[in-house]
Specification:
alpha+beta, 60s Ribosomal Protein L30, Chain: A, 2 domains, seven-stranded mixed β-sheet, 11 helices, 13 strands, 36% helix, globular, magnesium
Length: 333
């Protein structure tokens, strides 16, 4: 019965069947103590990310397929942020109670859907029981761009700061889901999708790497926090302009209805998984043109400054506000 709780061995059997499709470069898959994957020389980018019930999601707002998708997207996005291409992933799941076959298939199905969208094979992992709810951890291995990985530490004074897509949509979607109003969810479906099924910007990251981006990071903790990360690693400051930060029309409409500031969702909401990047003027213009050709819009939002200027948000009237302390922090929330 698909709705009957499974034993560990029965759950593994379902997972093994779902991961049975051939994967390029996979030599040993599920069934042994470890997977064997053939990497064709050179450097490998490695990353791991985890999401936990009650911290990153609740089961009353996220379905299991959405949780599988989000967990995979978070790690794949780290590869995108370095301009790389994801190759394979390991997924560890801890269930708060013995799962049913339907639950295993939903969770893994969402992860497979996301990984399949960027040609990243799930080649193994682990399953166990948790005393504190559902937890999912995903490790991804990928290859850097031919020009090398784009790091957080390469920004230089005078570089232009840009960001792909629009920001704050995920936070807006979370607001809609937490409201519990079906009519609100029906009115703002794109925001809900942005939160439940975020896209990782793999093609954009590769374009930015090929155009010579000097630094890059994915917007997972909010624009403010992630830009501060780049500045800290590069030993620089920055000035970004509030009126330049790209916000979607749907986010603006929700903010107007909810009487909220959409800029705060963009600065501190997180989980947009867009790419914030820096580049010298001439390379920045080339990057915008190349991204536009691939229908991946990006926006100029500011400039890298001397470290002594700090990290500042400039309002239309010229008032400056520090970006420090904005954004998500696991240990301060």
């Amino acid at each position: 019965m698909a709705d009957t709780p499974l034993s560990e061995s029965a759950a593994i059997a379902v997972i093994r069947e779902m991961l049975s499709a051939p994967a390029p470069a996979l030599e040993v898959g599920v069934g042994d103590d470890a997977a064997v994957f053939h990497f064709a020389g050179g450097s490998i980018i490695l990353t791991v990310d985890s999401i936990y019930e009650g911290i990153h999601f609740t089961l009353d707002t996220c379905g299991l397929a959405d949780i599988g998708w989000k967990a995979m997207a978070a790690s794949v996005s780290d590869i995108a942020a370095m301009g790389g291409q994801p190759l394979c992933a390991l997924m560890s799941v801890a269930f708060g109670a013995p799962p049913t076959e339907d639950e295993v298939r939903a969770l893994l199905g969402g992860a497979l859907e996301m990984s399949g969208s960027c040609n990243c094979s799930i080649i193994g992992g682990d399953i166990c029981r948790s005393s504190s709810g559902l937890g999912v951890s995903v490790t991804v291995a990928g290859t850097p761009h031919a020009y090398g990985p784009v790091l957080r530490s390469g920004a230089r004074e005078g570089d232009i700061i840009g960001v792909t897509g629009t920001l704050g949509d995920s936070a807006g979607g979370l607001y809609v889901l937490k409201s519990g109003h079906p009519d609100l969810r029906a009115k703002f479906p794109a925001l809900v999708d942005a939160h439940l099924r975020p896209e990782s910007r793999i093609p954009a990251g590769e374009i930015l790497a090929s155009c010579g981006a000097s630094a890059m990071e994915d917007v997972s903790d909010g624009l403010a926090a992630d830009l501060v990360h780049i500045c800290q690693e590069s030993d620089v400051g920055c000035e970004i302009y509030s009126e330049a930060i790209p916000l979607s029309g749907e986010l603006r409409a929700l903010a107007n209805e909810a009487r909220c500031d959409p800029l705060q969702w963009a600065l501190a909401g997180g989980e947009d998984y867009e790419l914030v990047f820096t580049a010298p003027e001439e390379r920045f213009s080339k990057a915008l043109s190349s991204l536009a050709e691939r229908e991946a819009p990006a926006t100029r939002i500011g400039v890298v400054a001397h470290a002594s200027k700090g990290t500042r948000l400039i309002a239309p009237d010229g008032r400056a506000e520090s970006l420090e302390g904005l954004g998500y922090d696991h240990f301060l929330k």
